Protein 1
Amino acid sequence: MKKTKKIILRIIKCAIIGSMLAVGIVTYSFKIEPKRLITREYQLELTTGGENSIRVVQFSDVHLGPNFSLKQLEKLVIKINRLKPDVIAFTGDLMDVPSQFEGRLNISDVLGKLKSTYGNYAVWGNHDHGGGGNRFYADIMVKSGFKVLRNESSIIDLGNGKVLNVIGLDDAMLGNPNVQKAYSGVDEQGATLLLLHQPDLVDEVGHENFDLALAGHSHGGQVVLPVVGPIVTPPLAKKYTKGMYKLGNDHHLYVNSGIGTTRIPIRFWDPSEISVFDLTL
């Protein structure tokens, strides 16, 4: 009888501890981690013995809406400016449901405060096309001081005969990416920075066609289990889900985990991030 009571008490204790742990994890995942913002920094040598250094700061998947406000965007802008970027790259999904976001007219007042040496560049994400976004996105970004690259490129003159090609592809889910058109104006002697929303598209582009590719879309899975990895990622972010990938000897892809959330406002083991790349050319 005493043994039975001890067993019952142990079961009850385990159930209480398990319940408390579950509540703690849920609370952390919904209330704490979605508000965390970390900075990840990388150094890459794109040209052996290069003398030019350029800092590229990437942010992605803001998803302005019920779970990410303009006030939070203001804090993000301040943090990015403190990093003193030479180039700022936004890899898509500005608003969660663009037609429903009432603060659309005020976005450019906030994003327009971003400062960089050589310019700010943006590409389209699926949320920028969908939800009425195709009516607002390009105008907002241009007013914010961004050059929106939709299957086109831009050349940055770094001096000393060095140039950096910035190539932007259209969204692959609701847009129409055209690799040949995007690369038509590239300086073949320069280093190549590719911006795109969906990371898995790099296999279609060809790894030899970029030195560094920056993507978003996956949100890193939003919920990541140790050892297991992301529970689920969206289409075109199945192969490359988060972080840095070395593709061949001299080609890299970075998948940013994003700033905001979509569908469910949850993050676990996958905080929002700004990614910084100090490139030697």
Protein 2
Amino acid sequence: MTKKILIPTDFSKNAWNAITFATSLFKNQNCVFYLMNSYSINEFDIGDIKASEFGVTSIDKANNLSKQELKKTLETLKSLNPDVKHTFKTISEYGAPIDVMKSTISKKDLELVIMGTKGRNNHSGTFFGSNTVTAMEEIRNCPVLGVPMDVKLGTLNEIVFPTNYEDSYKKRELAQLVQIAIKHESEICVLYVDPQKELSANQKANMEVLSECLEGSKFSFHHLSSTNRSLAVRSFVESRESKLVAMVNRKHGFFEKIFTTPMVKDLGMFDKVPLLVMHNLRN
């Protein structure tokens, strides 16, 4: 079955890195990659060309420049990526990035978004840009994989999946996680962080359901005794040199809260490790 993947780009170095990461992640697998650029004359900025320099045909010029940059990106990508199982298509559309992403996912029935964690206009001191955080929050029918600057795929030895076992999962919620793990023969390390190791009856039941959801992949269960979950996850990931963190966002506003408060200091691993965000499909 052919995978259909959306890769938003603003033509920044981070966006390009996300593209090459995506093609490596699904090497030798039938995929259609949709390279998407959204533009607006208020925020438009490609190279040294500013919206203020445009005349009455601002939108047309912005559209033409967007298409030109997509064409250049596509030509470069095809010259560097000889994978015959990969097909690339481009989308240039006027509008806010999140709106264009949502409409494209719906119209094309896409199953995964892969994007850089920061764009051209984000501050260097932040781990996640505003577009990435918004995508992880608002795109709830499709997982989003955020790829930090300069991170290369390498060997995907293991994927860390933090959980508190308070909620049950469904196979379709974790489908992309399992598929990636099987393809790369990665171990999914289910990580429970809590001062108490003993699980309640409900947590044990949810743990069993999770095991069923992960069937087909290699997985293991781990416990760390700590009251600081974010630091515990970071320590676990760094000590084992894990290559990917996956989690389910069950609460609206969760990522906005984390990535806009001092808590981000505890999550510094995400400037080195990609983050796969899935959603509770019942919300």
Protein 3
Amino acid sequence: MSIGNSPEDERPFEDASEEARPSIGRALRQARIARGLTVDDVSTATRVRIAIIHAIEADDFTPCGGDVYARGHIRTLARAVRLDPAPLIEQFEATHGGRPAPTPAAPLFEAERIRPERRGPNWTAAMVAAIVAVIGFVGFTAVKGDGGGTKEQVADGTTPEASTSASAVPKNDKPVDITPAPSDSAIAAAPQDKVTVQVTATDGRSWISAKDHNGRLLFDGLLKQGESKTFQDSQKVNLVLGDAGVIQLYVNGKKIDDDFRPGAVERLTYTKGDPQVG
């Protein structure tokens, strides 16, 4: 028997930092408790639903609706409890396969925007052209008829001033009556005593959540391309848009022209006095 280190004792120590590193949910929960915040406090500050916060703290990211939304929730919750979100995102990507490189979210939406759309015949332009043609034909016929009368008046020695002025008036006035194109307010008309928000997925699909002024959930789900939802409340409507870049909003009958980035998560609040950014 020899005195000294055995071969087993000479093996390098294993790095226990990975084993000691808390999970994403545990790190967020510990930081929240350390700051003296409840789940309700974090939900109120971030507009993230209580059920989703509980699930993330239990390392269950299924209710988020996908990896893109899960990353957005992790960043939001980390900032709320004063944590650096970058290490948590790296940890999430390491355990969930990382961000998909071949088909990132933003290029997909950009491709859908650039791709030309099939359009049907423009019946409005055809109708306007037909009206103008009819008016022109009537005016030409009237002028032609007046020309024959003018020749007779010249032969009789009279002047054609009265007939010329009479025929000129209908030619200039009638084209003004062409029906104007409908405005945005007419398309999305809304009552004045309520706040009305219309959400339409124009350039892709997006998860959305809507609540009234009491926090009651009006809708929570996926809005597919071409689908639309309308929400009303007596005071205000709170929105969370999972991919604001594909959404078109009408608030109280007026179009919102915010330039949202594709893939961006936006939290908005609108009242009866809007449109203005929530």
